UniProtKB/TrEMBL annotation:
<feature type="domain" description="TRNA-binding">
    <location>
        <begin position="39"/>
        <end position="154"/>
    </location>
</feature>
<protein>
    <recommendedName>
        <fullName>Phenylalanine--tRNA ligase beta subunit</fullName>
        <ecNumber>6.1.1.20</ecNumber>
    </recommendedName>
</protein>
<dbReference type="InterPro" id="IPR033714">
    <property type="entry name" value="tRNA_bind_bactPheRS"/>
</dbReference>
<dbReference type="InterPro" id="IPR005121">
    <property type="entry name" value="Fdx_antiC-bd"/>
</dbReference>
<keyword id="KW-0547">Nucleotide-binding</keyword>
<dbReference type="GO" id="GO:0016740">
    <property type="term" value="F:transferase activity"/>
</dbReference>
<dbReference type="InterPro" id="IPR009061">
    <property type="entry name" value="DNA-bd_dom_put_sf"/>
</dbReference>
<dbReference type="InterPro" id="IPR005147">
    <property type="entry name" value="tRNA_synthase_B5-dom"/>
</dbReference>
<dbReference type="GO" id="GO:0140096">
    <property type="term" value="F:catalytic activity, acting on a protein"/>
</dbReference>
<keyword id="KW-0067">ATP-binding</keyword>
<dbReference type="InterPro" id="IPR004532">
    <property type="entry name" value="Phe-tRNA-ligase_IIc_bsu_bact"/>
</dbReference>
<dbReference type="InterPro" id="IPR012340">
    <property type="entry name" value="NA-bd_OB-fold"/>
</dbReference>
<dbReference type="GO" id="GO:0004826">
    <property type="term" value="F:phenylalanine-tRNA ligase activity"/>
</dbReference>
<feature type="binding site">
    <location>
        <position position="469"/>
    </location>
    <ligand>
        <name>Mg(2+)</name>
    </ligand>
</feature>
<keyword id="KW-0479">Metal-binding</keyword>
<keyword id="KW-0436">Ligase</keyword>
<keyword id="KW-0648">Protein biosynthesis</keyword>
Amino acid sequence: MKVSYRWLKDYLALTTGPAALAEKITRTGIEVAEVTQMSAGLKKIVVGHILSCEPHPDSDHLNICQVDVGQDEPFQIVCGAPNVTTGQYVIVALPNSRIADNVKIKKGKMRGVVSMGMICGLQEIGFADSVVPKEYVDGIFVFPEAIEPGTEVYEALGMNDDIIDLDLTANRADALGMHGVAHEVAAIESLTPHFENIVVTESDVQTADQLTAQVADEQLAPSYHLRMLQNVTVQPSPMWLQTRLWNAGIRPINNLVDVTNYMMLTYGQPLHAFDADALMGDHKQIEVRLAKTGEKLTTLDEGEHDLTNEDIVITDGHQPIALAGVMGGLNSQITADTKNMIIEAAVFAPTAVRKTAQRHNLRSDASSRFEKGVNVADVQTALDAAAAMMTDLGNGQVTAGTVSPTNLVPTDKVIEIEADRINRVLGTEIATQTIVELLERFGFGVVNTDNHLTVTIPPRRWDIEIQADIIEEVARLYGYDNLPSTLPTGDMTTGALTTEQKALRQTRHTLEGAGLTQAISYALTTPEKARQFTLVDSALTVLDWPMTQDHAHLRMNLITGLLDDAAYNVARKQTNLALYEQGRVFLKQAKAQVRPTEIEYVAGLMSGERQIKTWQTTAVPVDFYTIKGVVERLMATYNLTAAVDYRPTQDYPEMHPGRTAAIYVGEQLVGFVGQVHPAVAKEYHLKETYVFQLDLAQILALPTSSVTAKPAPKFPEITRDIAIQVADQVSNAAIVSAIKAKGGAYLCSVELFDVYAGSHIDAGKKSLAYTLTYLNESATLTEEEVNLAFEKVVAELVATFDAKIR
């Protein structure tokens, strides 16, 4: 909410400056984002009167203007605006002036003609396009009334007004109107606000004879009121009204529409105006109902919307003419030809307004206020004030009476509270009379009966509901900085991580120690990406209100997010990648399941070179064994009781069928590791890429063994090397398992140190070389003991794998 300090002073006898007032407001609970003045940094910008305007002899779009700027002689200024003409009062930046973005305007020549400055549009002196009147968006601004030439423009345009930008939370919607802000500031400054009395002069014509209205369901619009004006004249608003609107971030349109926006800013009550003659039928009829599925409405922004039976619409008895509380329809807008009009003031169902605004992507100032709530006591007041001002600015007549098919009668809320409870909660010793005075500064009625307070809350503070709200009001006006600071009392509990938290933290440390960098991806994705790289079958989880269609489904894997991250990096020439992500996936056992189960996963991605080329090293690309080594290192940190096993698999269509292994702990599948299928990698514009994905929830639930430290061995080890030739399809894991089974009690490790296939090896065969290490921790091993155990291993390999000893 952008609050005009000058406008605020219309209601309060303020002596505190804007900056100091902003600090006080922030300290009492409403944050002030900033205090600005549009004229800051501008210099030598004045009002000019165009005395003559002639075409430039060497240009088809430039004009040479003689402009009275309050000097002894007119200034000659060359202007290219399409709407410049004789007699206009315009904005002139004089030579050596400063306009928006600190641009300096100098005396110069345009196509050989001297130009003494520049005739400006509003954007050129700092106004946003969104607040510039549409007729001046592509040209210079023309004042609607005569102003003394040479006068600085800042006063006429409201640019020297201080704007206090309030960053309001949803519960303080009462401050979305200037009256609400005035009440708040009055409490802070111990002042009494003064508001104008509304007097509506009505004609002899009865509104009820010209207009009828009905609300199909009172829940849709609990309070709905209409007034009618006849014989109005549509014209530009006076400058004072335009300046107040654009200082609040609203574009001026015309004198009638501007009044509805002005009343919204004044009371926080949105209004809407319909062209009565655009409604169908001789006798005008307004009906509030739910839309019918298939009905269409073109709104004021010229967007066409397909309505649903959840949208509240205003109709003329035949067709929709507005989305209730959101935006009016183009078919009933106020135009230059409007003569008779209907003004609407209402309270609409907040949830329905919010959902309609989201559904049609039509968030507006009106919908924002209806969603958060409006002051029921001001609905009729705002309507009457608008009718009175439109009579003044539009030269029309207000018909007698208001048509109100529904009406909410404003009532005060009464909250009982003990003064001792307020002090006990705040830790203070504030006198009861002081508490009463603080609450009365808010305009609350307070009756004190032996320190028992009966607090009466007016309808304008609908955020006050319970005793805690009363305590908060006392605290923020008393001053949070005046509350005593105390240490907490009671038994202290030492904080510690749970076993799961420790394991998750260790997972991150291990992967980062292996050279991987953490990535954080969106949990929302497309249905195609959600279904890829899944460890288990799951139904999709679809969002009801997605931000975009590409973020409408919850992920069921982490790898597609890493692939997106990798593609982003590769597009920026970063090709050596090592990333990991630890996060949750969302799985549903059945489509009917409402809430998905959140499962903790960890995934990694490696691509490019694991060792770059230097003067003394060669480049080494990432391969399957690089990422498998990372996984093995990670799995070792969990100290699982069962053995970890890697089994070739073709169960994942997005993975390379010959370079992918399923990861088992015992017989429990916990993940997979391997190369991304080349076709999938090509879709992401990636070269050879390797990934892994683990179900951390399953892994952390498995039995673990404790780690026992052992002293260094006292006796020497003995090693034996063996090279065997076996068939290609024989796996290293099977050979290692056979060696360990027959290796004897003293075999402590088996290491593969060479793999060879090629010349000197039979076709379909490969050579594997191992180092077997033997150790007796209680005595020195003899050659005879090692040789006997080694011979058993050799015999087992020959018998089991038809191995040939090399």
